[in-house]
Structures are given as C-alpha cells and as structure tokens.
C-alpha cells in the first residue's frame, strides 16, 4: 500500500506497524496536550518527578554505584577484548568522527545549561549542615558535585551498560533483530512470555522520546533566553524560526545518512565547542576559573565516593535526591538511545576501546568545559547577577545574564547558539536514527520513517516553549527513567551470559582447530625438508 511506503513501513511486520502507531499516537497526544494546556501539563510532570525523586532517589543512587562496579568488572576482565561485530570487524569511522558522534550525542546542550545552573544553584542552596566535604569552600563543593554528576562517575554508570549489551548481543553474538528487546537474549526467551519483547520495545521508544524531548526542551528554552535577552529579539517567534531552519538541516541530514549527515554535524559541533571554550578563556575571569577549577578538582577526586553516595538521611530533606537522584534518572532515560547508538557507530572496536571513547576521553573534555563554565559564573562580579537572574526568571535566564556581563559576550552568545543548534541537530539525527531502527528492527532504517520521528521530536521541542517553568520539561525524563532502571541490570547480566557463552564457543573452536593446524604445519615442514 502507498501509505506504508510514505510512512517507511512497507517492509515492517504487523507488530512493528502497531509499535509505530501506538508510540507515535501516545507521544503526539501528550505533546498536543502540552500545547493546549501547558499549565496542566507542567503541574502533572512536576508532580510526577517529585514523587519519583522523593520515593526512589535513593534507588537511583544505589543503582548507579552497582552499575559502576559491574561496568569496570566487565571492561577490565577478559570480556573487554571482545570486538563489536566479531573478531574480523573493521572500524567504520575514524577516531575524530567516532569521538565527535559519541560526545555530541551523549551530552547535548546540558553542558552549557547545567554548567551554569547547577553550581549557582548549589551555592545558593547548599546541602544541609554539616556539609559532605569539610574545609572546602561552597563554590568548590558546588563545582565538585557538578564534576560527579556530569563528568565522572556519571559517564561510566549509565551509557556503557547499554552500549556493552547492545554491542555484544546484537553485533558480536549476532541475534539478528536490531531491537532493544534483543538485549534480553540470555535472560528470557521471547516465546516464554508472549508480548514481553514487544512491550519492552514500546517502553524503550517512549523513554527515548521522553529523554530526547527533555534535552530539546532545555535547548529551546535556553536558545530563546539568549536570543531574547542578549540580542533583544522577539525570542519565542525567532526561536520557532531557528527550529524551522534546524528542521531543514535535519531533513537534509536524514537523507544524507549516518556517515555524511550525523558524522559531519557532530564534527562541526565539536569545532564550535572548541571555539567557544577558547574565547571564554580569553574574555572570562581566567585566573579565577583555573584556580577554582583546580581546587574543585581536588575536592572531587579526594571525596569521589562520599559525593556520589551522599544522601544525608538525617536532615529530613531531599537535597541529594533532587540533585544526584535527578541526574542519575536523567542519564538512565538517555541510556537506551545513547548506548545503542554508541554500539552502532563502534563496530570494529573492542569493549575497552569503547570504554576509552565513551568514558575516558569525554571525562577529560567535560571536565575542561565545566571547569571553565563553572569558574566563569562563580567568579566575583558574575555570581551575584547570574544568581539574581536565575531566581527571577529561571535557569535559561542565568546563562543569558552571564553572557550579557561578559566582554565580547555577544560573540560568545553567537557561538553558544551555534553549539546549541549543533547539539539539537545531532541529537535529532541520532535519536530518530535509533528510534526508527528499533521500530523496524533494521540497522539502517529508511529516511522516510526517520523523517516522521524527527517531526514528532521537533514538535515536542517547540511545545516545551509553551510550558510555564523550565523545571517542567526536565520532569519528563525523570519519570520515564524509573521503569527502565531495573532493565539496565537485567541487560548487563544478559550481556555477561552471552559474552561468556560466546567466548567459550570461540575457545572451543580454537582448541579443535589447533591440532589440525599443527599437523598441517609439520607436514609442510617435512615436505619442504625432503625437497
């Protein structure tokens, strides 16, 4: 039928078509409700987030610690030498392109937004006394918490379990179905619980759309604040125009595909990130940035486990749940999409190489960026005005105010808008690539189906501009993350089972062929000697 071709579903099974319509319909209905009743949706999302964090913040903190231990155990055991795609697989992308795609997809504009908002927020509302770190200034402690949440161990806890499981089970072991539910292989057979795999894929799609919508919402509101406050423009209307332009670029990228579309957008975004950070070093409070950054780094590294496991149960508040619990829930919501995408672009690399490009290298990059951004807004002369702007108009206004009072701030603002636009494009590109792939079970989904998913995500991004509070859109990912938190442990165990069996089969095959190879070698030697 022609309609299946237009939707990119001509080769899809009936179950896959139902999956497409159910997910698309549910998320479109939620987005429409947001446009028509933004206040009601804001209250609904905020209330759901508060319940999740108050009741399960401790669970996310514990789960993150457990995942960290398991990830390191798998990476640096004999399973770390497994190559994604099999022993003969060759890397599809060069090192810079590979790192660019992993970095820009895995972090988004949160580095800019939360790099300003979190340190300022913690300085204004620090943890209850006594502080988790004694002897450190509140500024250093605030930046140290930022390092914990978005540098390390946050990087290692959430994306890598999914990337490992997807890479080992789908590519190395070769289960055949390019779906999130395939990661249940080794744990439960598809036929044992009818409908389980389909339900897992549905939940994965909803969580992925929710997680991406959160970042698009952050990005849209921050872009509107910069355009409106720094350049004195009609921010909302202009932001819709920018989104339309981004949409044109996105559709071009969809037709160009993974190599020429997503890869080039990611590489360009990395260039803008480098330029903006270099300019910030020149025009910002340089000495203070480096001094505070180094002091906070000492606090972070010497108190790593204290900070990541801090809950303060005797205070009666929810400070740790609202920060660490929120961050871990957000990472968890993103993990399904980012982990599977990282596995897709990491074919030909080993598990340990994937660890380096997903954890080690981004740790260095994000540490430098947060050191500079945090030191910039916490410096004397900056901290007060930025805090006032955030208290009066929310987190997006904070970054706009910081730009207003910085020398050459308009130039820096242009670079920041380019960075945010680049993050939006790469996030949209990679998200719809994986969402469509999961829906169709196809490693290289057709551009028509990807375009429909892209339209849905862009619709969510624009809807977020209608919400009253910045905190409302961030609630979506936190709420979506809870059902998938236990799933992360299940698939990590499944990847261990599959990796163990795969290596056992490989070792057995090697043992069976070795005597034959030895006899052949001896025979050849004897013949050569007779000659």
Automatic annotation (TrEMBL):
It comes from the Archaea. Its main location: membrane. GO terms for cellular component: plasma membrane. It is a multi-pass membrane protein. The chain crosses the membrane at residues 18-36, 56-74, 95-117, 156-175, 196-218, 238-258, 270-290, 325-343, 355-379, 410-438, 450-467, 479-499. The keyword Transmembrane applies. It is found in: Cell membrane. Keywords: Cell membrane, Membrane, Transmembrane, Transmembrane helix, Transport. InterPro entries: BCCT_transptr. Residues 509-531 are annotated as: Disordered. This is BCCT family transporter. The lineage of its organism: Archaea, Methanobacteriati, Methanobacteriota, Stenosarchaea group, Halobacteria.
């Amino acid at each position: 039928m022609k309609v299946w071709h237009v939707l990119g579903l001509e080769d899809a099974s009936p179950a896959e078509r139902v999956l497409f319509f159910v997910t698309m319909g549910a998320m479109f209905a939620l987005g429409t409700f947001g446009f028509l009743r933004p206040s009601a949706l804001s209250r609904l999302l905020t209330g759901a987030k508060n319940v999740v964090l108050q009741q399960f913040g401790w669970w996310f903190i514990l789960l993150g610690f457990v995942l960290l231990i398991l990830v390191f155990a798998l990476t640096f055991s004999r399973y770390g030498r497994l190559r994604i795609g099999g022993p003969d697989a060759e890397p599809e992308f060069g090192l810079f392109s590979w790192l660019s795609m992993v970095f820009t997809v895995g972090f988004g504009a949160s580095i800019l937004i939360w790099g300003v908002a979190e340190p300022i927020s913690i300085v204004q509302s620090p943890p209850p006394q006594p502080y988790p770190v004694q002897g450190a200034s509140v500024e250093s402690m605030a930046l140290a918490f930022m390092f914990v949440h978005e540098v390390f161990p946050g990087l290692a806890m959430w994306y890598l379990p999914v990337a490992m499981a997807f890479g080992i089970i789908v590519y190395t072991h070769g289960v055949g179905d390019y779906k999130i539910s395939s990661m249940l292989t080794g744990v439960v057979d598809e036929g044992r619980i009818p409908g389980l795999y389909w339900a897992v894929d549905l939940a994965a799609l909803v969580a992925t759309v929710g997680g991406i919508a959160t970042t698009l919402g952050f990005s849209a509101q921050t872009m509107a604040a910069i355009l409106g406050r720094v350049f004195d423009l009609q921010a909302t209307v202009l932001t819709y125009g920018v989104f339309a332009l981004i949409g044109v670029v996105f559709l071009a990228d969809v037709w160009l595909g993974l190599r020429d579309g997503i890869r080039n957008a990611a590489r360009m975004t990395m260039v803008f990130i480098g330029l903006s950070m270099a300019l910030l070093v020149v025009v910002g409070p340089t000495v203070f940035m480096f001094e505070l950054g180094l002091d906070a780094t000492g606090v972070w590294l010497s108190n790593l486990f204290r900070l990541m496991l801090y809950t303060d149960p005797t205070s009666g508040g929810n400070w740790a749940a609202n920060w660490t619990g929120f961050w871990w829930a957000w990472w968890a919501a993103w993990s399904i999409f980012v982990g599977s995408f990282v596995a897709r672009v990491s074919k030909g690399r080993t598990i340990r190489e994937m660890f380096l490009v997903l954890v080690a290298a981004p740790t260095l990059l994000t540490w430098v960026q947060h050191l500079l951004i945090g030191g910039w807004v916490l410096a004397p002369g900056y901290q007060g005005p930025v805090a006032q702007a955030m208290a009066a108009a929310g987190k997006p206004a904070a970054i706009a105010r910081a730009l207003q009072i910085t020398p050459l701030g308009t130039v820096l603002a242009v670079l920041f808008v380019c960075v945010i636009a680049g993050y939006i494009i790469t996030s949209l590109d990679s998200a719809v690539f994986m969402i469509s792939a999961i829906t169709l079970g196809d490693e290289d989904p057709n551009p028509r189906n990807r375009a429909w998913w892209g339209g849905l995500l862009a619709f969510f991004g624009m809807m977020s501009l209608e919400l009253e509070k910045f905190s409302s859109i961030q609630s979506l990912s936190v709420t979506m993350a809870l059902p998938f938190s236990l799933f992360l442990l299940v698939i990590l165990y499944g990847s261990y089972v599959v990796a163990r069996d795969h290596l056992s089969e490989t070792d057995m095959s090697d043992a069976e062929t070795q005597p034959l190879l030895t006899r052949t070698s001896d025979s050849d030697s004897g013949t050569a000697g007779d000659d």
